[in-house]
Amino acid sequence: MGEEVTRILIGVNESSLKGYPNPSISSKGAFEWTINKIVRNNVSAFNLLFLHVHFPDQDGYENMDSRGTHLLEYFVNRCNEIGVPCAAWIKEGDPKEVILNEVKRIRPDLLVVGSRGLGPFQKVLVGTVSEFCWKHAECPVMTIKRNADETPRDPVDD
Amino acid sequence: MGEEVTRILIGVNESSLKGYPNPSISSKGAFEWTINKIVRNNVSAFNLLFLHVHFPDQDGYENMDSRGTHLLEYFVNRCNEIGVPCAAWIKEGDPKEVILNEVKRIRPDLLVVGSRGLGPFQKVLVGTVSEFCWKHAECPVMTIKRNADETPRDPVDD
């Protein structure tokens, strides 16, 4: 069993906080969960693949290539510290469509996406990307919900 | 990282085939996927917990305790061969409610459930247990869809 490495595609996005681009709380949570609960100390058996999808209309005329690169650097640096092999790239488009296409293209063993979690009044508003991926992706999908105590007071900080 | 073992709860059910109770194709698939892609050779870092939910009205007056025990034996034997620690038990009730309650009770790191997959004409009929768990379970949930080429000709063989 386990001749080839397990390739895990992790969809990551940035926090809406202004200023220097940081990974969102849910992206960080999904990454740390994958390391702590799945990869553990078996680093050479896994390959983490980070995909950031830039939705073109979202941020106007900012230099998003640079922001996305900074975002991915965070995860690549963490992987280097831990010693797990990784790759990272950016695509433009509608996140759920791009993620599904990338799953088709690179055929990971597992797709991990963070989710902001479904509050009682948010069910219809959030979770659309993760639910779409869960239903349609051609590989197993794991959704890591953010802990309730990590919900930022201001949704823009998410 | 990874001081405590990763506890994975796997919901398993039996094939509807008559005769000796066998695990369903999707249960076997979920188990083998977990071993091959997640546990790999890091067997001492994981603990697999098998839950079979017996839905009382489903099979009339048969001796279901015995059937469920045989079903769980399959997975326990496989774990013993592989060398991964495990536990297994049976509960009665509505599968999706029981699985959610067991997640609350034992707090696994991950819930794995097999799914028959969604064929073009089956979307409204199947996937209810896995979708319910995915939406409501208080832990990350992974759904392993059965491969299309494993779909039995007769649904009763599922």
TrEMBL record, chains A, B:
Gene3D superfamilies: HUPs. InterPro entries: At3g01520-like_plant, Rossmann-like_a/b/a_fold, Universal_stress_UspA, UspA. Residues 25-145 form the UspA domain. GO terms for molecular function: AMP binding. PANTHER family: ADENINE NUCLEOTIDE ALPHA HYDROLASES-LIKE SUPERFAMILY PROTEIN (PTHR47710). This is UspA domain-containing protein. The lineage of its organism: Eukaryota, Viridiplantae, Streptophyta, Embryophyta, Tracheophyta.
